[in-house]
């Protein structure tokens, strides 16, 4: 992908994020009803409306591209893939917490290259493209923290861990300077802007993490699975995002890699 390609893709992704912001705000703290999907996770009218709008816009602009979304699954296409999560943090959305986001990723041959974390309720947006990450248009950079004992560590919830995985995370996070919970995609934006240093999670799907990878990595961070492998459509849902290679390596050692 050339710089021009990346900028064109990012500009279109920003248009998609604008659409997601408008629709999310129209429903936020007004929509309380939800349904349960087969996996017992909640879904609202806002999730469905945002994904439908994003899919329609992508198909109109790039009719040959594939689309993967949380609600409607995979639409087949060529080796250009858009991955969208209309509301990452639906439980936050339902309960009035403003830290939910919309995630938009563009991948080529399975590799995420452009990512957007849109936080509609706060009017905040991170965009990662090859060579740079921005936060509301200004450069974003990780803290560079290299020592676990100095690290500010996040995960969304203990509920997403198996007992064995939780034991590993619990032991790891207690060695840090502090640990916090909650945030869904927002914590990865905080990492990209230097406000936290390590995020460790499990049970994620590609639409949960594909957009996060370009944001974190192009801000100077490292993001892989628990074995240190690049994240992609076939990943097992266990992710580590760190503010430096040194911190990432320490985290992997504690997680059994």
From TrEMBL:
<dbReference type="InterPro" id="IPR011809">
    <property type="entry name" value="His_9_proposed"/>
</dbReference>
<dbReference type="Pfam" id="PF00459">
    <property type="entry name" value="Inositol_P"/>
</dbReference>
<dbReference type="GO" id="GO:0052834">
    <property type="term" value="F:inositol monophosphate phosphatase activity"/>
</dbReference>
<keyword id="KW-0378">Hydrolase</keyword>
<dbReference type="InterPro" id="IPR000760">
    <property type="entry name" value="Inositol_monophosphatase-like"/>
</dbReference>
<keyword id="KW-0460">Magnesium</keyword>
<comment type="pathway">
    <text>Amino-acid biosynthesis; L-histidine biosynthesis; L-histidine from 5-phospho-alpha-D-ribose 1-diphosphate: step 8/9.</text>
</comment>
<keyword id="KW-0368">Histidine biosynthesis</keyword>
<comment type="similarity">
    <text>Belongs to the inositol monophosphatase superfamily.</text>
</comment>
<dbReference type="InterPro" id="IPR051090">
    <property type="entry name" value="Inositol_monoP_superfamily"/>
</dbReference>
<keyword id="KW-0479">Metal-binding</keyword>
<dbReference type="InterPro" id="IPR020583">
    <property type="entry name" value="Inositol_monoP_metal-BS"/>
</dbReference>
<protein>
    <recommendedName>
        <fullName>Histidinol-phosphatase</fullName>
        <ecNumber>3.1.3.15</ecNumber>
    </recommendedName>
</protein>
<keyword id="KW-0028">Amino-acid biosynthesis</keyword>
């Amino acid at each position: 992908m050339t710089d021009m390609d990346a900028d064109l893709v990012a500009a279109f992704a920003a248009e998609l994020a604008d659409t997601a912001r408008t629709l999310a705000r129209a429903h936020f703290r007004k929509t309380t009803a939800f349904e349960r999907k087969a996996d017992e996770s909640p879904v609202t009218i806002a999730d469905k409306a945002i994904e439908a709008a994003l899919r329609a816009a992508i198909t109109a602009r790039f009719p040959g591209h594939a689309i993967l979304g949380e609600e409607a699954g995979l639409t087949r296409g060529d080796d250009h893939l858009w991955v969208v999560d209309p509301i990452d943090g639906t439980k936050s959305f339902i309960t009035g917490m403003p830290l939910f986001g919309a995630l938009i990723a563009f991948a080529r041959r399975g590799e995420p290259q452009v990512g957007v974390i849109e936080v509609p309720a706060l009017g905040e947006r991170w965009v990662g493209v090859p060579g740079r990450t921005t936060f509301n248009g200004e450069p974003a950079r990780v803290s560079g923290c290299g020592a676990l004992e100095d690290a500010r560590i996040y995960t969304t919830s203990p509920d997403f861990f198996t007992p064995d995985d939780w034991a590993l995370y619990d032991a790891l996070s207690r060695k840090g300077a502090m640990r916090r919970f909650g945030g869904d995609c927002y914590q990865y934006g905080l990492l990209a802007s230097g406000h936290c240093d390590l995020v460790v999670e499990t049970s994620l799907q590609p639409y949960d993490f594909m957009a996060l990878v370009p944001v974190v990595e192009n801000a100077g961070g490292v993001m892989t699975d628990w074995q240190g492998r690049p994240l992609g459509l076939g990943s097992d849902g266990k992710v580590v995002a760190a503010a430096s290679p040194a911190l990432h390596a320490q985290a992997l050692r504690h997680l059994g890699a």
